[in-house]
């Protein structure tokens, strides 16, 4: 079945879509990032408040221009990373988010992974822009989820060219 | 196996429900089902060529039902072939014609045709056919000047829809037909009239097209049966093989129950043609202008006034993603669809919205709502009451993201 | 316009009516219609990919209904594709496979396949495919030795029916399948199981075919929907173009009402599988041997005993022309069909009767009668009472003409 | 409609099929003929009783191995030619028979014309075998309906060959 028709959402997706946790711009964010593009119909902004000493995420929030699963995935991720160190937060993958949501339809993979991409960009930016140093555990090469965000943004450029914008 | 029941529990049921997604699913009326019943329960009607009482009754029924179908088009009953769907009608019209007329190899369609026309035309392309896809203006109107330029002695077929199914543009079919036939009588002209049948007058004895597709489910008849008008003298090759009739023509789909429903739906739709027209135009304008006035940053997709289909509302809400919109609307009991990439099976925004020059982010934020004789003013009031809050909530999730 | 009403008046109505022409037209039961009703009247079910409550309900329904369809075949629900008819299933199986596997170009079918298989295979022929048509024995059994001989490294597909629709031969599908797969695992095997589904056990997890066609109307479900089992991993190209799914596979036919009826018919047929089997075998033998014993110069077409489909009776009455037989039977309230040239649309005797070595004049005099769970013993008694007089009268018209 | 589905019979066809007039072998026939072939599923035997002096058909009858329209057409023709001279009888065409039957479906043309072919063969045979002379009005060339019978018989040969009989 799933191969021919996109599987409907699990209830948790709808729950977070109805009542998104940690929604909204954070004015006092330590660091901010984004991933995706409106042209693709999927974009996420991620805000982290970081305790500089412990490197613990004390608060995070998001904004999303995207489908219900995009919104739910971002919200779910903000819940998962609360009070986690940046190193712990880095380790969350798309599969973890999807599992926490009760499974995402395969056709919606890119929505969930966009949230992870945005978080990782924020973590990188934190070390690069604020700390000016790179911890051991942070890989130099882009991770899969970060690459996915890049791909999606590249697609947006292509779409824009296709439609001569 | 499926957790959909849990999903539906989470979704909850709105106090009031307003169904506007007639493009994607329809129901039929009690009266139509009543017309179908005897063919399901009492008669073994099936094959009108069989030489016994039941076969002759079937034959008799076919003659009468086809007469009913042919009447609003003002054509002869024997010029209507029955298919399973308008997708099949469109495939049969294009491929069936090409296979019987192999001398000419150029097919001209517009970029806002239904995918069953565009994909069929493109599928010919590989067989060394030339396919020309005409552009449209920003309200979706096919550019007939470019049509004129593209005609040549190689041209086999021009296929232009009567009404666009997504943005409601009433196409200049008569003008296009005159251009084509003035250039060369021998070029065939097909119109996909699926979204026009029952909405605007289609007198094919006057609008002298060669082929026209129309469908039962689009006028609240049962799914699974559709028609293709084939002008006398035109031969089509069947698109699949089986028990063919004596002629090379595709055999009529033999489904008396569905045919009975189709015929009854035609009767109902055309008995009250003017009333339905006025009713839907009223609901359409109320809904379309109501939303446009009460909600900021909205764009109406498609033309206004009498160049728009009576039943079509299509609006882009900037800063909203369409899939989220359909889900939130659903939780408020309002059912509609979107041209968003996220709701399509191929994850691309509607080819029609991008054809009229909408940016992808405008296409993603679109909502398609159709109205028909089963909808009421009160339903539209409900939608107008709910939508501003829905849009506001979705926009609040988008927040400061620049669209 | 039509004088059929006068014809029917002249025909008159028999006191009793016995319908045995299930091959050409079927009805459905009240219970099946009840299962379809909500999808016609209450729900706008249509597109299971749509992202709102109605779409999700449709999805949920599809999962459940496909599970019902898949159960008697003992396969996964997602391996069932829905089509409009078994004719379409057969076309999709053969053409859809060939288009996705262009390296091999030989197709093997038998000469007693349904025309939708034979014509589809032959239609490939022109595209420089090789088509081999296997002969059958005089009870219609496919010659598997010749199958063995025909297999080679060019062979793409072998398509063999499970049961012959006209003379009821149960084919040696398992044996043929083993021969094919022993020769080369990569050769695809399709079986048209239309006349076998619901009649004989078809456990496809054990009988490991690649593709199998089956249909709703053949088990007293509504017409307009059928299935094609597609083994996991096999890709088919759609036989017509339209809104394709993400995969290259032909989209499921989206007709929830017909699917609901199909699923209910499957439930009913398989709930009482053994009872129906016994019941039809009893009626079949009573009718077949009853006619054979009471009427001289009759030949039974097809095999006897457990190599014959439980529901099939096919008898040639020498010295009778079949069309006249069907008309006279009809006037006596008995509805059947014939392999006579005069009842076919192409004026040729049944290709199946001639394949088993019947002379044309034997084929012309044949009567095909099917029995199912709706038929009763009392009905068979009536047929047995009436037929001798009908045959006698038709033979008296033939008089001294030497057949 | 008629182009795609064979039109059902007119009531008169069924009437004559139910109660065929002039059915059966005639032992004292002046002349007998046949047309068609069982292999084609259509054969007619025609019997004429002719008053030799007036050349009037005083009685005629038929036998038919064929469909309802074949039977009705033969029966109808026997009725039409009763008390007609051979010359008058010759002039009846398939169209006349079809019209008298209320119209035959076009796909059934050959059934009706077979009866006319058989009658004409009988008339020719009468002059050839019994009278040993050919009247003026009798054409030398085969008429359309006679040719049709020949074609049908040739088809039977082809069928027989096809099925190796
Ligand atoms: C966009 C689109 N594609 C395909 C279809 C298939 O319709 P049908 O099965 O009548 O050809 C529909 C019908 O609702 C449709 O709206
Ligand atoms: C001989 C024959 N040809 C064709 C058909 C068409 O069937 P379907 O429309 O289900 O493919 C049937 C069905 O009754 C049949 O018996």
Note down, in words, how this protein is organized:
The complex is a heterotetramer, with 2 copies of chain A (165 residues) and 2 copies of chain B (403 residues). With 165 residues, chain A is α+β, with helices and mostly antiparallel strands. Chain A contains 6 helices and 3 strands. Chain A has a single domain, classed as Sufe protein. Chain: A. Helix content of chain A is 46%, strand content 16%. Chain A has a 3-stranded antiparallel sheet. Chain B has 403 residues and is α/β, with parallel strands linked by helices. Chain B folds into 2 domains: 144 residues, Aspartate Aminotransferase, domain 1; 242 residues, Type I PLP-dependent aspartate aminotransferase-like (Major domain) (Aspartate Aminotransferase, domain 2), CATH 3.40.640. About 1% of the residues of chain B have low confidence. Chain B has 13 helices and 12 strands. Chain B is globular. Chains B and C meet through helix 1, helix 2, helix 3, helix 4 and helix 5 of B and helix 1, helix 2, helix 3, helix 4 and helix 5 of C. Bound molecules: pyridoxal-5'-phosphate (2 copies).
Put the structure in a nutshell.
The complex is a heterotetramer, with 2 copies of chain A (165 residues) and 2 copies of chain B (403 residues). Chain A is 46% helix and 16% strand.
Largest sheet of chain B: 7 strands, mixed
Number of domains of chain A: 1
Q: Which fold name corresponds to the CATH topology of the largest domain in chain B?
A: Aspartate Aminotransferase, domain 2
| Associated small molecules | pyridoxal-5'-phosphate
Question: What's the CATH superfamily of the largest domain in chain B, by name?
Answer: Type I PLP-dependent aspartate aminotransferase-like (Major domain)
Contiguous uncertain segments of 5+ residues of chain B: 245-250
CATH hierarchy: architecture of chain A: Alpha-Beta Complex
pLDDT averaged over residues of chain B: 92
Q: Which CATH first-tier class of chain A would you pick?
A: Alpha Beta
**What is the N-to-C order of secondary-structure elements of chain A (H for helix, E for strand)?**
HEEEHHHHH
Shape descriptor of chain B reads globular
- Quaternary: heterotetramer
Corresponding CATH architecture of the largest domain in chain B: 3-Layer(aba) Sandwich
Could you give the order of strands across the largest sheet of chain A?
1-2-3
Distance between the termini of chain B: 39 Å
The largest chain-to-chain contact, stated as pair and per-chain residue counts, equals: B-C, 90 and 90 residues
């Amino acid at each position: 079945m799933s191969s021919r028709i996109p599987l409907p959402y699990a209830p948790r997706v709808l729950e977070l879509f109805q009542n998104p946790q940690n929604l909204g711009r954070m004015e006092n964010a330590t660091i901010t990032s984004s991933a995706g593009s409106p042209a693709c119909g999927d974009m996420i902004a991620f805000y982290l408040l970081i305790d500089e000493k412990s490197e613990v995420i004390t608060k995070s929030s998001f904004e999303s221009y995207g489908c219900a699963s995009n919104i739910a995935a971002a919200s779910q991720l903000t819940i998962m990373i609360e009070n986690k160190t940046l190193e712990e937060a880095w380790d969350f993958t798309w599969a973890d988010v999807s599992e926490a949501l009760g499974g995402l339809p395969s056709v919606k993979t890119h929505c969930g992974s966009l949230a992870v991409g945005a978080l990782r960009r924020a973590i990188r930016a934190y070390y690069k822009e604020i700390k000016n140093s790179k911890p051991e555990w942070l890989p130099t090469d882009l991770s899969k989820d970060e690459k996915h965000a890049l791909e999606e943004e590249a697609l947006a450029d292509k779409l824009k060219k296709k439609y001569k914008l | 196996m499926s957790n959909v029941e849990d999903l539906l529990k989470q979704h909850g049921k709105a106090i009031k429900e307003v169904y506007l997604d007639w493009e994607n699913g329809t129901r039929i009326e009690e009266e139509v089902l009543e017309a179908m019943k005897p063919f399901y329960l009492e008669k073994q009607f099936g094959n009108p060529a069989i030489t016994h009482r039941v076969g002759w009754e079937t034959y008799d029924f076919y003659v009468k039902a086809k007469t009913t179908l042919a009447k609003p088009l003002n054509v002869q009953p024997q010029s209507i072939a029955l298919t399973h769907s308008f997708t099949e009608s469109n495939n049969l019209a294009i491929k069936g014609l090409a296979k019987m007329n192999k001398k000419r190899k150029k097919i001209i369609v517009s970029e806002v045709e239904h995918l069953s026309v565009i994909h069929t035309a493109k599928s010919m392309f590989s067989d060394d056919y030339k396919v020309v896809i005409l552009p449209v203006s920003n309200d979706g109107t096919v550019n007939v000047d470019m049509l004129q330029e593209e005609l040549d002695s190689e041209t086999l077929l021009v296929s232009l829809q009567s009404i666009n199914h997504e943005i409601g543009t009433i196409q200049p079919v008569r003008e296009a037909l005159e251009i084509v036939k003035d250039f060369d009588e021998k070029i065939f002209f097909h119109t996909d009239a699926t979204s026009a049948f029952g909405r605007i007058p289609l007198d094919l004895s006057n609008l002298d097209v060669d082929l026209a597709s129309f469908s039962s489910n689009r006028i609240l008849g049962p799914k699974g049966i559709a028609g293709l008008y084939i002008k006398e003298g035109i031969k089509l090759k069947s698109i699949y093989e089986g028990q063919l009739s004596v002629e090379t023509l595709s055999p009529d789909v033999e489904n008396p129950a569905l045919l009975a429903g189709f015929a009854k739906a035609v009767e109902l739709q055309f008995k009250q043609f003017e009333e339905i027209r006025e009713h839907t135009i009223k609901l359409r304008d109320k809904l379309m202008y109501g939303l446009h006035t009460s909600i900021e940053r909205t764009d109406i997709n498609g033309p206004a006034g009498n160049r728009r289909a009576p039943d079509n509302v299509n609006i882009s809400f900037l800063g909203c993603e369409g899939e989220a919109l359909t889900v939130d609307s659903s939780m408020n009991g309002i059912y509609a669809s979107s041209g968003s990439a996220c709701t399509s099976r191929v994850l691309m925004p509607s080819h029609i919205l991008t054809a009229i020059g909408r940016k992808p982010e405008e296409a993603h934020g679109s909502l398609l709502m159709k109205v028909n004789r089963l909808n009421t003013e009160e339903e539209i009031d409900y939608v107008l009451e709910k939508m501003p809050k829905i849009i506001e909530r979705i926009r609040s999730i988008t927040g400061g993201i620049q669209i």
